[in-house]
Structures
1.
Amino acid sequence: MQVRPGSKALMFGILLLIAAFMLGSGCINRSTPTVPPTPVYTPQTTILIGSENVNPQILVISRGVTVTWLNLDMGIHTIASDPGVPDSFTSPPLSNNQLYQFTFTLAGTYGYHYTDNPGIKGTIIVRS
């Protein structure tokens, strides 16, 4: 195989052009990636959703505390307050590892249940 004069320079020019295009089009990103925000919850204010129960079934908190329901089940569940509670709430349908948060601003006793299985329920007692 015979190499034509100037073909190395042409190849170098093409590679240089491709590199310049990649830099200009954003294919090479030199910025630091941002980490998505992590939801804030603690074991003292988190209710774990399972296929057969919630844990804990009774949670006592102070007024102004945000409670987190975290679905650990593979099924989709919706949490809703029972009728007659001081301040009603309903979560969106929660898939596995999704969470719902509600801040309790009114003191009282809050019963809640799964809308897909009303037999699974819990209670939150909010002290002033």
2.
Amino acid sequence: MTEGDVLDLVQSAMWTTILVAGPVVGASMAVGVAIAFFQALTQIQEATLTFVPKLLVAFAVFALTASFIGSQFQIFTQEVYARIEHGYRG
């Protein structure tokens, strides 16, 4: 395996991580901004008001995107195995 192959593999791993974490993080950020806006309007400073809804949204988005996340991990794993197989045969 050359340095280029390793860099390619690291880049692919980072991109997979971004794709997998993106929906959950994005939804949590959107809910966090909405709650912060609500707290600024009402001057309610309750810690659980920010934590609980973001946690519920994160679980819901994770449940809805679990098949997508699994398919991304499967694609990445197949790519890694193909590189290993190619490296040992070449």
